[in-house]
Amino acid sequence: MEELAKALNQIEDTYYDFVTAMLHYAGKKQERADALLGYITSNPGVKSAEVIRFVSEQPDFFEDAAYMKIG
Q: Between these two residues, 54 and 62, which has the higher pLDDT value?
């Protein structure tokens, strides 16, 4: 997780809430951390918005979302 945090903090347009959110997401499963680190290292010059898009397109992204029950 330390390597991922370092990679996130090295993104050109990084900011605190972005890093915190990505680490929270990745902290749930090792597969998430591995995929996210792989994406960042495979895409030099990636921007925070691209990382957010990558994470939001992951099949398990909505597992953590809180759904409001309407009824």
A: 54
